[in-house]
């Protein structure tokens, strides 16, 4: 389950948070396919609770596994998956399988199913009270999780009072597996497993063992779904990501926290020369890495205060470093505009309908969507990662402070200046001689560079100068953008 199911030559996914299925289908065809993205992480596709003012987090309170949400219905989901797969862009579903709605209260969900959080009744599945952990399994005073140093409490009690499904019960695992196999049959390529820390690894192993192989019409025969589990492990709790690594990849929150420190100049960039497992992070093949996610960009969840799109300069620097470096399987966040003082604010909408994504003349998004993945530095570095994949990091250079550079085999080279003075260096790139387009300052259209050009000599050396006041104090060149 640890192998990303990307089409060949594609290596990065983007979380199109709260997008509608019809907009994702268009984005696959007009942007993600042509720009070499591996896939899209979509918001939970299953029926969710209706919460007044429609906060984004209502989608993390399942009511049933019917495929009807504000993002669209099952037909629209199928259409999106087919259209994206057709242009080699995969779909990864956010699987919220640890719990149902918050306990207490009752109502209907986005598919019209009734639910009752007092009697723990979810007829849309169906789940009833005995399908949830009770006082037999959870020994905390109020059935909620309070102590993250108590591994049993974290698994058997309620996360923020969400009704905690009893995954030790085969019936519960069968219902969840049925939901995930329905998505696999439709053509999804894998799953983000929400709140994985709150489920026993053994129960997850048993559950994943019930999953079918991917749709052979799309992926060929015998291909397992790609699974990455949300486990917030910053190294200070008894529950560790390593417990989950054997059953799929895990989200690495240390990654974004540490890069946040470096690219805010709170830690020297020269220390990144041994970035990766040496920084007390899991093996590169076992993690999904990212700068920020939908939780911590708004102060939910873990991983400290990461760099987000609200600080574009360090955000582009950190993302460029992430995509240029060989460590981990990379994920970009794509947000909607929200007021940082209102972390509950849901997606841009009119009435109860989520806004369409509109595309401006300059290829940015309108109608309330941030679309970080459409910033030139982001999508050009997604292409950089594709070109250099498999090449070792080499020719590391730094000035002992906040200026760094490194190459990837003979395919790509990057130079970054976070220092308080300009960078002016002749460096060994390892690249073949020629004229390269700097893909940070512009694009390569197949014959010319719209941004700066870099000359690499026969000896592999090139001269780089980067002012320290530039909005984008970095240069990236690769053999896919060479005149
Ligand atoms: C909403 C309301 C609640 C209400 C509930 C039920 O906000 O007041 O009780 O409904 O009615 C999202 C929202 C929640 C929302 C929920 C359901 O974030 O606010 O609750 O939907 O609508 C823990 C989990 C982690 C989880 C994270 C938010 O371990 O899995 O909390 N993330 C996922 C999703 C998230 C979603 C859910 C789970 C639920 O991504 O969007 O919630 O489906 C420590 C622990 C972490 C823990 C955090 C926060 O983190 O280690 O495991 O995450 O605390 O509780 C440093 C430390 C780090 C620490 C962090 C924060 O970074 O190193 O370890 O500080 O203390």
Automatic annotation (TrEMBL):
Enzyme class of the recorded protein, top EC level = hydrolase
Cofactors required: chloride; Ca(2+)
Looking at the record, the residues that make up the Alpha-amylase C-terminal domain are 394-482
Q: Which InterPro entries does the protein's record reference? A: A-amylase/branching_C, A-amylase_C, Alpha_amylase, GH, GH13_cat_dom, Glyco_hydro_b
Instruction: Please name the SUPFAM superfamilies in this protein's record.
Output: (Trans)glycosidases, Glycosyl hydrolase domain
Q: Kindly provide the name given to this protein in its UniProt entry.
A: Alpha-amylase
Q: Does the keyword rRNA-binding apply?
A: no
Q: Which SMART domains match?
A: Aamy (SM00642), Aamy_C (SM00632)
Q: Which organism is it from?
A: Mizuhopecten yessoensis (Japanese scallop)
| Molecular function as annotated in GO | alpha-amylase activity; metal ion binding
Tell me the Gene Ontology biological-process terms attached to this UniProt entry.
carbohydrate metabolic process
- Lineage: superkingdom: Eukaryota
Catalyzed chemical reaction(s):
Endohydrolysis of (1->4)-alpha-D-glucosidic linkages in polysaccharides containing three or more (1->4)-alpha-linked D-glucose units
Q: Member of which family? A: Belongs to the glycosyl hydrolase 13 family.
Domain Glycosyl hydrolase family 13 catalytic, chain residue ranges per copy:
11-385
Query: Could you list the residue ranges forming a coiled coil in this record?
Result: none
Protein keywords: Calcium, Carbohydrate metabolism, Chloride, Glycosidase, Hydrolase, Metal-binding, Signal
What EC number(s) does its UniProt record assign? 3.2.1.1
Question: Which spans are transmembrane here?
Answer: none
């Amino acid at each position: 389950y640890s192998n990303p199911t990307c089409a060949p030559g594609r290596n990065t996914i983007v979380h199109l948070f709260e997008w509608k299925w019809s907009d994702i289908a268009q984005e696959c065809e007009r942007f993600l396919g042509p720009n070499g993205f591996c896939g899209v992480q979509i918001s939970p596709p299953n029926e969710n609770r209706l919460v007044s003012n429609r906060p984004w987090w209502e989608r993390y309170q399942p009511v049933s596994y019917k495929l009807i949400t504000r993002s669209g219905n099952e037909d629209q989901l199928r259409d999106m998956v087919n259209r994206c797969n057709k242009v080699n862009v995969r779909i990864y579903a956010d699987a919220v399988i640890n719990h149902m709605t918050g306990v207490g209260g009752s109502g209907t969900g986005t598919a019209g199913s009734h639910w009752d959080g007092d009697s723990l009744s979810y007829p849309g599945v169906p789940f009833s009270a005995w399908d949830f952990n009770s006082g037999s399994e959870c020994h905390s005073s109020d059935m909620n999780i309070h102590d993250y140093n108590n591994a049993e409490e974290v698994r058997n009690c309620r996360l923020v009072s969400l009704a905690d499904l009893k995954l030790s019960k085969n019936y519960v695992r069968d219902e969840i597996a049925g939901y995930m196999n329905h998505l696999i049959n439709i053509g999804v390529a894998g799953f983000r497993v929400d709140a994985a820390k709150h489920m026993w690894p053994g129960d997850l192993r048993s559950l994943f063992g019930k999953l079918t192989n991917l749709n052979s019409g799309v992926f060929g025969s015998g291909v397992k779904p790609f699974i990455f589990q949300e486990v917030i492990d910053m190294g200070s709790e008894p529950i560790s990501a390593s417990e989950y690594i054997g059953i799929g990849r895990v989200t690495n929150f240390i990654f974004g926290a540490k890069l946040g420190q470096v690219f805010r100049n709170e830690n020297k960039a020269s220390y990144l020369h041994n970035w990766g497992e040496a920084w007390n992070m899991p093996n590169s093949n076992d993690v999904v890495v990212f700068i920020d996610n939908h939780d911590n960009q708004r102060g939910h969840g873990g991983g400290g205060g990461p760099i987000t799109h609200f600080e574009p300069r360090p955000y582009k620097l950190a993302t460029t470093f992430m995509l240029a470096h060989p460590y981990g399987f990379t994920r970009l966040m794509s947000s909607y505009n929200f007021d940082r003082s209102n972390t509950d604010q849901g997606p841009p909408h009119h009435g109860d309908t989520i806004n369409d994504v509109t595309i401006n003349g300059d290829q940015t998004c309108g109608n309330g969507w941030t679309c970080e993945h459409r910033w030139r530095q982001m999508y050009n570095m997604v292409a950089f990662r594709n070109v250099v994949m498999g090449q070792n990091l080499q020719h590391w250079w730094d000035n002992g402070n906040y200026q760094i550079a490194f190459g990837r085999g003979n395919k790509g080279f990057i130079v970054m200046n976070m220092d308080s003075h300009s960078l002016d260096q002749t460096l060994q790139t390892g690249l073949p001689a020629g004229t390269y387009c700097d893909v940070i300052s512009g694009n390569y259209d197949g014959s010319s560079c719209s941004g700066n050009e870099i000359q690499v000599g026969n000896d592999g050396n090139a001269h780089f100068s980067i002012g320290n006041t530039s909005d984008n104090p970095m240069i990236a060149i690769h053999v896919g953008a060479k005149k």
